[in-house]
Design goal:
There is one protein chain. The protein is an alpha/beta fold and 343 residues long. Helix content is 35%, strand content 16%. It contains 13 helices and 13 strands. The strands form 2 sheets. It has a 7-stranded parallel sheet with strand order 3-2-1-4-5-6-7, with helices on both faces. A 6-stranded parallel sheet has the order 10-9-8-11-12-13, with helices on both faces. Helix 3 runs parallel beside helix 4.
Length: 343
Protein backbone atom coordinates (compact mmCIF):
# COMPACT_ATOMS: atom_id res chain seq x y z
CA UNK A 1 0.00 0.00 0.00
CA UNK A 2 1.26 3.49 -0.86
CA UNK A 3 1.66 5.72 2.18
CA UNK A 4 0.53 9.25 1.39
CA UNK A 5 1.75 12.35 3.15
CA UNK A 6 -0.93 14.32 4.97
CA UNK A 7 -2.81 16.84 2.85
CA UNK A 8 -1.54 19.58 5.16
CA UNK A 9 1.97 18.89 3.95
CA UNK A 10 0.92 19.42 0.34
CA UNK A 11 -0.96 22.60 1.20
CA UNK A 12 1.97 23.92 3.21
CA UNK A 13 4.30 23.29 0.33
CA UNK A 14 1.96 25.03 -2.08
CA UNK A 15 1.85 27.99 0.26
CA UNK A 16 5.63 28.19 0.20
CA UNK A 17 5.52 28.87 -3.54
CA UNK A 18 3.61 32.08 -2.79
CA UNK A 19 6.37 33.34 -0.54
CA UNK A 20 10.10 33.72 -0.98
CA UNK A 21 11.28 30.27 0.09
CA UNK A 22 13.14 28.32 -2.56
CA UNK A 23 11.52 25.08 -3.61
CA UNK A 24 13.17 21.83 -4.65
CA UNK A 25 11.51 21.16 -8.01
CA UNK A 26 11.78 18.20 -10.37
CA UNK A 27 11.04 18.76 -14.06
CA UNK A 28 10.40 15.43 -15.80
CA UNK A 29 10.82 15.60 -19.58
CA UNK A 30 10.19 12.93 -22.22
CA UNK A 31 13.32 11.04 -23.28
CA UNK A 32 12.79 11.48 -27.03
CA UNK A 33 14.37 14.91 -27.59
CA UNK A 34 17.15 16.62 -25.66
CA UNK A 35 16.32 19.61 -23.44
CA UNK A 36 16.41 22.01 -25.17
CA UNK A 37 15.98 20.29 -28.53
CA UNK A 38 18.48 21.09 -31.25
CA UNK A 39 15.70 21.37 -33.83
CA UNK A 40 12.09 20.15 -33.50
CA UNK A 41 10.62 19.51 -30.07
CA UNK A 42 7.76 21.42 -28.48
CA UNK A 43 7.44 19.84 -25.03
CA UNK A 44 11.19 19.88 -24.45
CA UNK A 45 11.38 23.58 -25.30
CA UNK A 46 8.69 24.33 -22.75
CA UNK A 47 10.52 22.27 -20.13
CA UNK A 48 13.76 24.13 -20.84
CA UNK A 49 12.01 27.49 -20.51
CA UNK A 50 10.56 26.43 -17.16
CA UNK A 51 13.90 25.15 -15.86
CA UNK A 52 15.73 28.34 -16.85
CA UNK A 53 13.13 30.65 -15.31
CA UNK A 54 12.65 28.65 -12.11
CA UNK A 55 16.42 28.57 -11.63
CA UNK A 56 16.62 32.31 -12.23
CA UNK A 57 14.03 32.79 -9.51
CA UNK A 58 16.22 30.94 -7.04
CA UNK A 59 14.61 27.51 -6.96
CA UNK A 60 16.62 24.29 -6.81
CA UNK A 61 15.70 22.49 -10.05
CA UNK A 62 16.50 18.93 -11.08
CA UNK A 63 15.67 17.87 -14.64
CA UNK A 64 15.01 14.27 -15.63
CA UNK A 65 15.80 14.09 -19.34
CA UNK A 66 18.14 12.59 -21.92
CA UNK A 67 21.81 12.66 -20.99
CA UNK A 68 22.71 15.00 -23.87
CA UNK A 69 20.46 17.73 -22.45
CA UNK A 70 21.93 21.07 -21.39
CA UNK A 71 20.07 22.63 -18.47
CA UNK A 72 20.95 24.73 -15.44
CA UNK A 73 20.79 22.94 -12.12
CA UNK A 74 21.06 19.17 -11.87
CA UNK A 75 20.44 16.74 -14.71
CA UNK A 76 19.38 13.14 -14.09
CA UNK A 77 19.93 11.24 -17.36
CA UNK A 78 17.10 8.81 -18.08
CA UNK A 79 18.70 7.67 -21.38
CA UNK A 80 22.24 8.44 -22.59
CA UNK A 81 21.06 10.26 -25.72
CA UNK A 82 17.70 11.55 -26.93
CA UNK A 83 15.88 8.64 -28.54
CA UNK A 84 14.29 10.16 -31.62
CA UNK A 85 17.48 11.71 -33.11
CA UNK A 86 19.17 8.37 -32.40
CA UNK A 87 16.64 6.69 -34.69
CA UNK A 88 14.37 5.01 -32.13
CA UNK A 89 10.78 4.77 -33.35
CA UNK A 90 9.39 2.04 -31.11
CA UNK A 91 7.05 1.86 -28.15
CA UNK A 92 7.63 4.76 -25.75
CA UNK A 93 6.11 3.07 -22.71
CA UNK A 94 9.12 1.08 -21.46
CA UNK A 95 11.07 4.34 -21.30
CA UNK A 96 8.21 6.17 -19.59
CA UNK A 97 7.91 3.41 -16.99
CA UNK A 98 11.66 3.44 -16.33
CA UNK A 99 11.61 7.23 -15.95
CA UNK A 100 8.61 7.19 -13.60
CA UNK A 101 10.34 4.59 -11.43
CA UNK A 102 13.52 6.70 -11.32
CA UNK A 103 11.57 9.77 -10.23
CA UNK A 104 9.70 7.77 -7.58
CA UNK A 105 12.99 6.43 -6.20
CA UNK A 106 14.14 10.03 -5.61
CA UNK A 107 10.86 11.73 -4.77
CA UNK A 108 11.92 12.63 -1.23
CA UNK A 109 14.48 15.01 -2.72
CA UNK A 110 11.72 17.32 -4.03
CA UNK A 111 8.94 19.56 -2.79
CA UNK A 112 7.12 19.47 -6.16
CA UNK A 113 7.39 17.16 -9.16
CA UNK A 114 6.31 18.60 -12.51
CA UNK A 115 5.91 15.79 -15.03
CA UNK A 116 5.45 16.09 -18.83
CA UNK A 117 4.99 12.41 -19.80
CA UNK A 118 1.40 12.54 -21.07
CA UNK A 119 -0.64 9.57 -19.75
CA UNK A 120 2.21 8.55 -17.46
CA UNK A 121 1.51 11.81 -15.59
CA UNK A 122 -1.46 10.14 -13.95
CA UNK A 123 0.55 7.07 -12.96
CA UNK A 124 3.25 9.17 -11.29
CA UNK A 125 0.71 11.38 -9.53
CA UNK A 126 -1.11 8.31 -8.24
CA UNK A 127 2.03 6.63 -6.95
CA UNK A 128 4.00 9.57 -5.55
CA UNK A 129 3.79 10.91 -2.03
CA UNK A 130 5.37 14.18 -3.11
CA UNK A 131 2.87 16.61 -4.75
CA UNK A 132 2.78 16.21 -8.53
CA UNK A 133 1.79 18.62 -11.29
CA UNK A 134 1.18 16.85 -14.60
CA UNK A 135 1.02 18.89 -17.79
CA UNK A 136 -0.48 17.23 -20.85
CA UNK A 137 1.08 18.57 -24.04
CA UNK A 138 -0.37 16.25 -26.66
CA UNK A 139 -3.66 14.95 -27.87
CA UNK A 140 -5.79 13.45 -25.10
CA UNK A 141 -8.92 12.27 -26.93
CA UNK A 142 -7.82 8.64 -26.77
CA UNK A 143 -10.39 5.83 -26.35
CA UNK A 144 -8.93 4.91 -22.96
CA UNK A 145 -8.73 8.53 -21.83
CA UNK A 146 -11.96 8.55 -19.78
CA UNK A 147 -10.93 5.38 -17.96
CA UNK A 148 -7.55 6.90 -17.07
CA UNK A 149 -8.73 10.35 -16.09
CA UNK A 150 -11.65 9.15 -13.97
CA UNK A 151 -9.02 8.53 -11.29
CA UNK A 152 -9.06 11.89 -9.54
CA UNK A 153 -5.38 12.26 -8.76
CA UNK A 154 -5.41 16.07 -8.83
CA UNK A 155 -2.72 18.32 -10.19
CA UNK A 156 -3.41 17.68 -13.90
CA UNK A 157 -3.02 20.67 -16.22
CA UNK A 158 -4.24 21.32 -19.77
CA UNK A 159 -2.44 23.75 -22.10
CA UNK A 160 -5.54 25.43 -23.54
CA UNK A 161 -9.24 25.76 -22.88
CA UNK A 162 -9.93 23.67 -25.96
CA UNK A 163 -7.58 21.01 -24.59
CA UNK A 164 -9.43 20.95 -21.27
CA UNK A 165 -12.84 20.74 -22.98
CA UNK A 166 -11.91 17.24 -24.16
CA UNK A 167 -12.86 16.20 -20.61
CA UNK A 168 -15.05 19.03 -19.29
CA UNK A 169 -16.07 17.17 -16.15
CA UNK A 170 -12.54 16.39 -15.07
CA UNK A 171 -11.25 18.37 -12.11
CA UNK A 172 -8.42 20.08 -13.95
CA UNK A 173 -6.01 21.87 -11.64
CA UNK A 174 -5.78 24.60 -14.24
CA UNK A 175 -5.37 25.65 -17.84
CA UNK A 176 -1.91 27.09 -18.49
CA UNK A 177 -1.06 28.25 -21.99
CA UNK A 178 2.41 27.31 -23.16
CA UNK A 179 4.95 30.09 -22.77
CA UNK A 180 8.30 30.81 -24.37
CA UNK A 181 10.74 33.70 -24.09
CA UNK A 182 9.85 35.45 -27.34
CA UNK A 183 11.65 38.73 -26.68
CA UNK A 184 14.50 37.76 -29.01
CA UNK A 185 12.28 36.80 -31.95
CA UNK A 186 13.56 38.54 -35.11
CA UNK A 187 11.47 41.07 -37.01
CA UNK A 188 11.97 41.93 -40.66
CA UNK A 189 10.40 44.94 -42.35
CA UNK A 190 10.89 43.44 -45.80
CA UNK A 191 9.20 40.11 -46.41
CA UNK A 192 9.36 37.53 -49.13
CA UNK A 193 6.26 36.43 -51.01
CA UNK A 194 6.68 32.91 -49.65
CA UNK A 195 4.39 30.96 -47.40
CA UNK A 196 5.97 28.85 -44.65
CA UNK A 197 4.98 25.60 -42.95
CA UNK A 198 6.74 24.52 -39.76
CA UNK A 199 5.96 21.28 -37.94
CA UNK A 200 5.94 17.54 -38.56
CA UNK A 201 5.53 15.50 -41.72
CA UNK A 202 2.25 13.99 -40.55
CA UNK A 203 -1.32 13.88 -41.90
CA UNK A 204 -2.81 15.58 -38.85
CA UNK A 205 -0.55 18.60 -39.36
CA UNK A 206 -1.95 19.20 -42.85
CA UNK A 207 1.39 19.39 -44.61
CA UNK A 208 -0.04 18.22 -47.96
CA UNK A 209 -2.88 20.72 -47.60
CA UNK A 210 -0.24 23.42 -47.08
CA UNK A 211 1.25 22.52 -50.47
CA UNK A 212 -2.21 22.87 -52.02
CA UNK A 213 -2.81 26.23 -50.31
CA UNK A 214 0.41 27.58 -51.78
CA UNK A 215 -0.47 26.29 -55.24
CA UNK A 216 -3.94 27.87 -55.15
CA UNK A 217 -2.46 31.15 -53.91
CA UNK A 218 0.28 31.18 -56.53
CA UNK A 219 3.02 31.31 -53.90
CA UNK A 220 6.09 29.26 -53.13
CA UNK A 221 5.91 27.19 -49.95
CA UNK A 222 8.96 26.64 -47.80
CA UNK A 223 8.70 23.69 -45.42
CA UNK A 224 10.70 23.14 -42.22
CA UNK A 225 9.48 19.86 -40.81
CA UNK A 226 10.56 16.85 -38.80
CA UNK A 227 10.25 13.34 -40.21
CA UNK A 228 9.27 10.81 -37.55
CA UNK A 229 10.99 7.50 -36.98
CA UNK A 230 7.92 5.32 -36.45
CA UNK A 231 6.98 2.98 -39.32
CA UNK A 232 3.69 4.77 -40.06
CA UNK A 233 5.47 8.13 -40.05
CA UNK A 234 8.10 6.91 -42.46
CA UNK A 235 5.41 5.40 -44.69
CA UNK A 236 3.51 8.70 -44.81
CA UNK A 237 6.71 10.52 -45.71
CA UNK A 238 7.57 8.11 -48.53
CA UNK A 239 4.12 7.35 -49.93
CA UNK A 240 2.23 10.64 -49.48
CA UNK A 241 4.48 13.60 -48.73
CA UNK A 242 7.32 12.94 -51.18
CA UNK A 243 5.01 12.51 -54.20
CA UNK A 244 3.08 15.67 -53.26
CA UNK A 245 6.33 17.57 -52.85
CA UNK A 246 7.68 16.32 -56.19
CA UNK A 247 4.54 17.49 -57.97
CA UNK A 248 4.88 21.02 -56.56
CA UNK A 249 7.46 23.80 -56.47
CA UNK A 250 7.56 23.73 -52.66
CA UNK A 251 10.96 23.66 -50.98
CA UNK A 252 11.62 21.15 -48.22
CA UNK A 253 14.28 22.43 -45.81
CA UNK A 254 14.24 19.56 -43.32
CA UNK A 255 14.56 20.29 -39.61
CA UNK A 256 16.05 23.67 -38.77
CA UNK A 257 17.85 24.97 -35.71
CA UNK A 258 15.99 27.48 -33.56
CA UNK A 259 17.82 30.45 -35.09
CA UNK A 260 17.25 29.32 -38.68
CA UNK A 261 13.61 28.53 -37.95
CA UNK A 262 13.04 31.99 -36.46
CA UNK A 263 14.70 33.63 -39.47
CA UNK A 264 12.44 31.62 -41.78
CA UNK A 265 9.33 32.68 -39.86
CA UNK A 266 10.42 36.32 -39.82
CA UNK A 267 10.95 36.40 -43.58
CA UNK A 268 7.61 34.86 -44.55
CA UNK A 269 4.57 36.51 -46.07
CA UNK A 270 2.48 34.27 -43.82
CA UNK A 271 2.65 30.97 -41.96
CA UNK A 272 0.06 28.32 -42.81
CA UNK A 273 -1.30 25.89 -40.22
CA UNK A 274 -3.87 23.78 -42.10
CA UNK A 275 -3.90 20.82 -39.72
CA UNK A 276 -7.31 19.33 -39.02
CA UNK A 277 -6.48 17.72 -35.66
CA UNK A 278 -7.56 19.28 -32.33
CA UNK A 279 -4.36 21.31 -31.84
CA UNK A 280 -3.68 21.28 -28.05
CA UNK A 281 -1.85 24.62 -28.27
CA UNK A 282 0.31 25.52 -31.28
CA UNK A 283 3.80 26.83 -30.49
CA UNK A 284 4.37 27.62 -34.16
CA UNK A 285 1.56 30.16 -33.97
CA UNK A 286 3.05 32.20 -31.13
CA UNK A 287 6.55 31.97 -32.59
CA UNK A 288 5.30 33.22 -35.93
CA UNK A 289 3.28 36.04 -34.40
CA UNK A 290 6.27 37.07 -32.26
CA UNK A 291 8.09 37.68 -35.55
CA UNK A 292 5.16 39.78 -36.74
CA UNK A 293 4.22 37.13 -39.29
CA UNK A 294 0.47 36.48 -39.67
CA UNK A 295 -0.93 32.96 -39.40
CA UNK A 296 -3.50 31.43 -41.73
CA UNK A 297 -5.01 28.38 -40.07
CA UNK A 298 -7.92 26.04 -39.69
CA UNK A 299 -10.20 26.95 -36.80
CA UNK A 300 -9.31 23.93 -34.69
CA UNK A 301 -8.29 23.23 -31.12
CA UNK A 302 -6.57 26.06 -29.28
CA UNK A 303 -5.75 28.21 -32.31
CA UNK A 304 -8.79 30.52 -31.84
CA UNK A 305 -7.43 31.21 -28.33
CA UNK A 306 -4.14 32.40 -29.83
CA UNK A 307 -4.95 33.97 -33.19
CA UNK A 308 -7.21 37.03 -33.27
CA UNK A 309 -9.18 36.83 -36.52
CA UNK A 310 -8.51 39.86 -38.69
CA UNK A 311 -5.67 41.07 -36.46
CA UNK A 312 -3.14 38.23 -36.26
CA UNK A 313 -4.33 36.29 -39.29
CA UNK A 314 -7.34 34.47 -40.68
CA UNK A 315 -9.16 31.16 -40.41
CA UNK A 316 -10.45 28.90 -43.14
CA UNK A 317 -12.06 25.49 -43.33
CA UNK A 318 -10.27 24.04 -46.36
CA UNK A 319 -7.31 24.80 -48.65
CA UNK A 320 -9.42 27.00 -50.94
CA UNK A 321 -10.58 29.22 -48.07
CA UNK A 322 -7.09 29.38 -46.61
CA UNK A 323 -5.67 30.38 -49.99
CA UNK A 324 -8.28 33.13 -50.28
CA UNK A 325 -6.82 34.81 -47.19
CA UNK A 326 -3.21 34.85 -48.39
CA UNK A 327 -3.42 38.27 -50.05
CA UNK A 328 -5.53 39.67 -47.20
CA UNK A 329 -2.66 39.52 -44.71
CA UNK A 330 -1.08 42.53 -46.46
CA UNK A 331 -3.57 44.68 -44.57
CA UNK A 332 -2.47 43.50 -41.12
CA UNK A 333 -0.21 45.52 -38.82
CA UNK A 334 2.82 43.29 -38.34
CA UNK A 335 4.39 45.46 -35.65
CA UNK A 336 1.16 45.36 -33.64
CA UNK A 337 1.05 41.57 -34.02
CA UNK A 338 4.59 41.23 -32.67
CA UNK A 339 4.02 43.69 -29.83
CA UNK A 340 0.85 41.94 -28.65
CA UNK A 341 2.39 38.47 -28.54
CA UNK A 342 5.71 39.44 -26.96
CA UNK A 343 3.93 41.45 -24.26
Amino acid sequence: MIRRRPIESSAARSARSLGTAALRIAQVAPPFERVPPIAYGGTERIVHTLVVELTRRGHDVTTFASGDSAVPGRLVPVVPHALRPSGYGGDPWPYYVAEVLEVLSRQDEFDIIHVHLEWANVVLARAAETPVIGTFHGRIDAPAGPDILRHDVGGMVAISRAHARTYPDMGWAGVVHNGLDLSGAPFEERRSDDLVFVGRVAPEKGIVDAIQVARLAGRRLRIAAKIGTKPDERAYYEDVFKPALAASDAEYLGELSAGDRDALLASAHAVVMPGSWPEPFGLVAIESLACGTPVIARRVGALPEIIREGQDGFFGDDPAQLAFHVDRVDGLDRRAIRRSVVE
